[in-house]
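Re: [help] complex structure
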Amino acid sequence: MTETVHKRPDLTVEMAGVTFKNPVMTASGTFGSGKEYGEYVDLNQLGAVVVKGVSLTPWKGNPTPRVAETYGGMLNAVGLQNPGVDAFIENDLPFLRQYDTRIIVNVSGKSIEEYCRVVEKLAVTEVDMLELNISCPNIKEGGITFGTDAKMAASVVKEAKKYASQPLMVKLSPNVTDITEIAKAVESEGADAVSLINTLLGMAIDIHHKKPLLGNIMGGLSGPAIKPVALRMVYQVCRTVNIPVVGMGGIISGEDAVEFILAGATGVAVGTANFMNPCATVEVLDGLESYMISQGFSSIEEVQEAMKI
Amino acid sequence: MKKMITTIVAEQAKIGENCWSIWLQAPGIADNVQPGQFVHVKLNQGEKLLPRPLSVSEADRERNALRLIYAVVGKGTKDLSRMKEGESLRILSPLGNGFEIDETASKSLIVGGGMGIPPLLELARRIPGKKEIYLGYSATPFLLEEFEKEDAQTHVSTDDGCYGYCGTVIERMNQDKALGDIIYSCGPRPMLKALSAWAKERKIPAQVSLEERMACGIGACLVCTCKIAMEKEDGWHHRRVCADGPVFWSREVVWND
Ligand SMILES: Cc1cc2nc3c(=O)[nH]c(=O)nc-3n(C[C@H](O)[C@H](O)[C@H](O)COP(=O)(O)OP(=O)(O)OC[C@H]3O[C@@H](n4cnc5c(N)ncnc54)[C@H](O)[C@@H]3O)c2cc1C
Ligand SMILES: Cc1cc2nc3c(=O)[nH]c(=O)nc-3n(C[C@H](O)[C@H](O)[C@H](O)COP(=O)(O)O)c2cc1C
Ligand code: FES
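Output below.
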């Protein structure tokens, strides 16, 4: 009797010298610090856990309502509520370290100094990579977000690099005219990778009460509704920079993840899908692996290079 | 590992003016459910991503079934009301921290308003000893038959006076000079706020079940926060209604916002 043995594809990926067992990560802010979802998924199976944004001091975040559902997506205005980097290091990091997965910490700040201080504190911890969330308002520059200005984005990366001991990934905002310009700017200042997209600025109105659905009036749109925009931006950035790209925005299935990898992404992150199904991350991973088996791909790199234009 | 479970709609009925009752069945579904806990109901339709939180109104361990009572207020609850017996529905359950039952109380007060009434049914069943139930409705009452089966006095008030006392539950409680060792409550925020002040005046500890719009339902996304008093900082901090609540002690809730 003969048995067809499907060789399992090699899912490992490498970014900035860090090896990930597979490309599937969590999108920052949607997965807390892994504790809650750890009851639903085996965190050991994930390529990386990207934790919620941490800042120098505790941030209280925005007033409620902080969420509104929209067609095929959702708006959020959490306002980066977090207990601060010290509390994160003390309470959340030891929990995550028990697992055999990479830890990527998302860093927020309201000034370049704040970003640098957080990066400095994380430099001496067992964190595998940092993700600089540059979609935060720069208080010193009149509240313009760092990520929407190429010069500001470049300078925060340049300064943060001086304090970082881990590779620095930069999370790009889609709320710009040309995302490749920002990607090039951060690459030139030493960003080791880029991740995209963060949420798209949006709004929804309750027509009965005639007021915005979010306490903060505006918020970030995420979920399947944004996938085509995210995919387009990932494709553009992959063709522009030479550093690895982590793609996200509306990924809810293995097929969605494949699209991002075909567009050139090395890693993929799952965000809003976790709210629809707490096991979404592992289901995306399983779907990706099945696709690779059925198509005869033996590595992620092969998928990245397979797109025909 | 916990997971999203597939349940079967065992019964769906309209039990009042914009008031629906659905029984969901799945193996073990009613085990370990505490009154005041909720389930996160995922509707199958693609464009609606987020599950909807609904309180457990009854948990029947023999039939492996949970009962949810809900009002149709938007797209999600409308779709839910269209679900037929035998169809399947995915849920996360049970979520949140329910009421902490004080077994030593010599008399408990159970106070509910509108769509906050359903979770109090399972609670009323589990509270030992003497209890008095105050239910406030905007108009025609629902679930009254079930409450009246309990070994307790049930007082009804309605805003329009169509049934029982005409006025708010609190006015009704004042009229009765209601007293007890502990209060359990769920209802609209203005009612809970007024009740909290009522309880404070009489030095009666009160547990209140809060509502906030949710996404994950398990404590990870921080969209469902409420303000809870604390000594440090500005006197309050944000807590998650889904994972730290939905039941809180009323004296800890910051009501004026
Ligand atoms: C812990 C908890 C327990 C609940 N238990 C019950 C229950 O037993 N029975 C019941 O009828 N309802 C209950 N609710 C409210 C219920 O979740 C909402 O009515 C429901 O999600 C609305 O969904 P929709 O798609 O029909 O409305 P949408 O189209 O989403 O919104 C319609 C309206 O409902 C409001 N709304 C939406 N979500 C919520 C929410 N989570 N809480 C309050 N208002 C909301 C919106 O602001 C809007 O005005 C509970 C809510 C929470 C947080
Ligand atoms: C509730 C919520 C909180 C988020 N918090 C953060 C954050 O702290 N830092 C960050 O860089 N991105 C944050 N994001 C953006 C996500 O990481 C992701 O970029 C975006 O949601 C798109 O992916 P998705 O469609 O899969 O959710 C958040 C998104 C949501 C929905
Ligand atoms: S709904 Fe996500 S933390 Fe409560």
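Residues 113 and 187 of chain B are 4 Å apart (CA to CA).
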